[in-house]
Write a structure and sequence with these properties.
about 100 residues, alpha+beta, Translation Initiation Factor IF3, 3 helices, RNA-binding_YhbY, RNA-binding
Length: about 100
């Protein structure tokens, strides 16, 4: 689990990122989870946007993604979810 200080650090780093995935009306599926897991391995920190036509609650979507990729939820702000997972091969982010 991330501490408050670590989450603050990651939020600051995520501020300038743009979302690279979108969750639409079909919700979260296995293919999306696989792609997000691969992106997290490369980048460690990503944003996912939830489109207005998504039928599921944003907190449920965040929980599904976190459980699916086995990562950490940094924050849900508006319709944007910020996810973090420490990379095995290319570690770039140093947590405080």
């Amino acid at each position: 689990m991330l501490t408050g200080k670590q989450k603050r650090h990651l939020r600051a780093q995520a501020h300038h990122l743009s979302p690279i995935f979108q969750v639409g009306k079909t919700g979260v599926n296995d293919n999306m989870i696989t792609q997000i897991a691969e992106a997290l391995e490369k980048r460690e920190l990503i944003k996912v946007s939830i489109l207005q036509n998504c039928m599921e609650d944003k907190d449920e979507v965040a929980e599904q993604l976190v459980n699916g990729v086995n990562g950490e939820l940094v924050q849900v702000i508006g319709n944007i979810i910020v996810l973090y997972k420490e990379s095995k091969e290319n570690k770039q982010i140093q947590l405080p």
